Amino acid sequence: MTALTLSTSAAPGLRADAIVIGVAKGAEGPVVAPGAEAVDKAYDGKLAGVLETLGASGAEGEVTKLPAPAGFKAPLVVAVGLGAEPEKDSGFDAEALRKAAGVAARALAGSRKAAFALPLTDAADTGAVAEGVLLGAYSFSTYKDNAGGKDNAKGAKAKNGKAPLAEAALLGGKPRDRAYKAAIERAAAVSEELNRARDLVNTPPNDLNPEAFAAIAQAAAKEHGIKVQVLDEKALAKGGYGGILGVGAGSASAPRLVKLSYTSAKADKHLAFVGKGITYDSGGISLKPAGHNETMKCDMSGAAAVFAAVVAAARLGLEVNVTGWLALAENMPSGSATRPGDVLRMYSGKTVEVLNTDAEGRLVLADALWAASAEKPDAIVDVATLTGAMVLALGNRTYGIMANDEAFRSAVHEAAEEVGEPAWPMPLPDHLRKGMDSPTADIANMGERMGGGLVAALFLKEFVGEGIAWAHLDIAGPAFNEGGPFGYTPKGGTGTAVRTLVRLAELTAAGDLG
């Protein structure tokens, strides 16, 4: 991962491959952002005009490269768009800084060192820029050929292209200030775990089956002092986890339920995070058509997010107990697969008529939710790439939040907005529950087609313990980016929901979440 340093050096005298500055979109053209005063001065105060001549406007995501002025030790200036110029006496918001830093870090792939002279007014801004750099520099090259790779600062060779930016110096940071140091340490911990989640999502399913995922979780738990328990197929059968077993019945790779427990001696609150971990989803007997199964390695994004969030909470030493439940299975068709019309007895004791084997995520989550509820946590949040209906409703960049408690739903939404993860609260209309009535079982795994994302959440609600605040995050849209990279978001796995979960844990530890 890119190395971060805080620097009080002036931009002209810093040895680096590039100096990154911010440019905003003003009413009459581009405006050089605070932090770049020394650079602007070297251009005789005419940097904004030079950038405009080169076509820059200051729009979000825009990158303009130009030779550094005479006397600078760095040969290149990279001007990155921050979006609209803020009103007088107000600074740039954290998300604008985070996105700009991410865009610049990605544009500087192959560089040994870059100095970021973006507007930093406090430690929070510094943390946002650090996070943007670390997330924007991410690349997944495990399966790429080494040929043609270019050495990075440590002599490591990138695979089939340029290595990620090796080092970033944040100018204007205060190396001896505890708040600034804490900000970049937090950014490093959260970003490293988020990037680990991205790696998992991007890993092909022939290398990441439930057993392999569980082994990765066990290794990380050992490293960070997290208690781990893995239920294999025999333990699941003995325990009566009919949902997880039913989904995994058609695969040669047996399912797993992984429990990760981070505890703090100073905690008086307990959060449970539950993640859908379908390591590959073919749809089962209700087979997905061509064009809908090529990216289904990403159907374990929820479990990856939960895993990353628990490890991040441990690394940050948060004073809250956090339990993560990873419901891992592979949904495949075979002679042993669950059929449409089969009835499964769930861990809760309820029976479910399976009308569509491609509505499998709710089945594994139901068992994990009931297991999580048995411990009586203060709140449960599940994360899942659950429904295409949510993508139709909210698009590819926004996830839906549903809950059994309006105040808790609002708290989750506020946490998501605070960390820059687009999300939107969705309702749970009671009348949609009737569509899941079954003549054979207690409930069916399908209901009305319209409002399918809400129907799925109503199904999950049936398996949440009484009196426990619960929220469901349907991340089907933003979990996997099939388009080009933007901001600090790469193509492929995005790590969506990790930062929301970490922020919820931080707020709970601070006593600010109910």
Structural notes for this entry:
This protein is an alpha/beta fold and 514 residues long. An eight-stranded mixed sheet has the order 8-9-11-10-14-18-15-16, sandwiched between helices. Strands 1, 2, 3, 4, 5, 6 and 7 form a seven-stranded mixed sheet that branches. A three-stranded mixed sheet has the order 12-13-17. α4 packs parallel to α5 and α12 packs across α14. The two termini are 36 Å apart.
Outline the secondary-structure elements.
Elements: E1 3-7, E2 18-26, E3 29-32, H1 37-42, H2 47-53, E4 63-67, E5 76-84, H3 94-107, E6 113-117, H4 123-136, E7 167-171, H5 178-202, H6 210-224, E8 227-231, H7 233-239, H8 242-248, E9 256-262, E10 270-281, H9 301-316, E11 321-331, E12 343-345, E13 351-353, H10 361-373, E14 379-384, H11 388-394, E15 399-403, H12 406-419, E16 423-425, E17 443-444, H13 452-461, E18 469-474, E19 480-481, E20 492-493, H14 498-509
Parallel strand pairs: 1-7, 2-5, 2-6, 6-7, 10-11, 10-14, 13-17, 14-18, 15-16
Antiparallel strand pairs: 2-3, 4-5, 8-9, 9-11, 12-13, 15-18, 19-20
Helix pairs in contact: 3-4, 4-5, 5-9, 6-9, 8-10, 9-14, 10-13, 12-14
